[in-house]
Amino acid sequence: MKSLKTSCKIILIVIILSILNTCFPYVTAQSPVQGTQNYIVMELEHEQILYKLNSEKETNSSILNRLMTCLITMDYQSVTTHITPKKDSISRNERFRLSAKEQYSIDSLIKATMLGGADNTAIALAEHIAASEQEFVGLMNEKAKQLGLKNTFFANVDGSPNELQHTTVLDMAKFIKHSLKNPHFKSIFMQELALWDDLVISNGNKLVIENNTSYKVGGVLGYFNNITTAQNISIFYVETGPTEFKDTMKLLIIVAGSTDEQYVQTSELLLENVLNNYKRDQLVKEGEIIYDMVVDDEKLNVVAASDVYCIMPKDIGNVLQNKSFTFIEGYGPDEIRPPITAGTILGTANYHLKDGSIIRFSMKADRDIELKKTTVKSLLDKIREYDELYTLLIALLILEAIILLLKLVAKISSK
């Protein structure tokens, strides 16, 4: 009897685990590195978060301050412009000196700020764009709001210690995704070395300068002194193959609060776990039917406007949880009317994956639907096909109108 109860318990546990696996087979994977660090691994195409730990916990914003300063400068001014600093200065790391009697290209100042961690060059850029550093800080906070960086606040441009300013690794990831759309920002971000007059600026991130893989990599390193220890913020970007390859992943790995070279070990381990456990695969094919509707008694298929790829676990077949749709005004199922042209973008499909990600892509009409003609219009169109008959009909109608007019005039005159 006891063994029967034990067997029943085992069977029940197996059934429950099977049900859970069926209902919730695909969730964000268990983070492979635990501890006091904050980190995030994000795929940039659809902002899929593959691994995270304390990703919304506040952390030092010093590197983000300088990166934001560079991005806003690029928004406002050409990088080929030369500027004169308002005052002489030397960076805190004593590597970069500025003279108020000399001119410097914005390009060289940005490289010193992004790759060399220079604080004085960030201030020089800000004072060139705005009337003061504080006015420029206002631009930084406004930009952060536009980008949806909900847990980020800036108090200065160079990242010097200030208890009011803060960010998170999630906000940093969102910022980098946006910034890499700027070609010049990305170009500097992906550099191992740059020149400052006769000085070689080496990218401080060892993941970039010591890369021994075939992957295209980029990134920066932020260094700051905490109350008890020196810590780093590593921003590391990896393209696992050529852009035109369909299996190429574009990954962003940000690690904050790590000491010494801990960020290297953590980042490499996170990357290894992604490559071992995930793949980029096709979710939807172009032309695949996403939705169907009836338009003026005719069926219209709403199809994917392009091929859609996303990151998914290697051992999971079905990653889709559910779907929702957002139609452009006038194209919703209850309001769409002919005429409709094949290829017209009708709205956006939202595919909700089991890991919580939402993959959005455009939907289009798969065929033309013409406006239906009335009986009279159809008859006239038919008559127009015969020019002589059409001309005769028009002449008869004009003659009939003249006769009716003459009769009306005669009737009025007789009275």
Walkthrough of the structure:
- With 415 residues, the chain is an alpha+beta fold.
- 35% of the residues lie in helices and 26% in strands.
- The chain contains eleven helices and 18 strands.
- The protein has helices spanning 2-23, 62-76, 106-114, 120-129, 133-146, 169-179, 183-189, 206-209, 262-277, 375-384, 387-414, and strands spanning 38-43, 48-53, 82-83, 89-90, 97-98, 104-105, 193-196, 199-202, 216-225, 230-239, 250-258, 278-284, 289-295, 298-304, 308-313, 320-327, 345-353, 358-365.
- Strands 2-1-11-10-9 form a five-stranded antiparallel beta sheet, with helices on both faces. Strands 13-14-18-17-16 form a five-stranded antiparallel beta sheet, with no helix packed on it. A two-stranded antiparallel ribbon has the order 3-6.
- Helix 2 (62-76) packs antiparallel against helix 3, helix 2 runs parallel beside helix 4 and helix 2 (62-76) packs across helix 5 (133-146).
- The radius of gyration is 32 Å and the shape is elongated.
- The termini are far apart.
- The model is unreliable at 7-27 and 225-229 (pLDDT under 50).
Secondary structure elements and their pairing?
Layout: H1 2-23, E1 38-43, E2 48-53, H2 62-76, E3 82-83, E4 89-90, E5 97-98, E6 104-105, H3 106-114, H4 120-129, H5 133-146, H6 169-179, H7 183-189, E7 193-196, E8 199-202, H8 206-209, E9 216-225, E10 230-239, E11 250-258, H9 262-277, E12 278-284, E13 289-295, E14 298-304, E15 308-313, E16 320-327, E17 345-353, E18 358-365, H10 375-384, H11 387-414
Antiparallel strand pairs: 1-2, 1-11, 3-6, 4-5, 7-8, 9-10, 10-11, 12-15, 13-14, 14-18, 16-17, 17-18
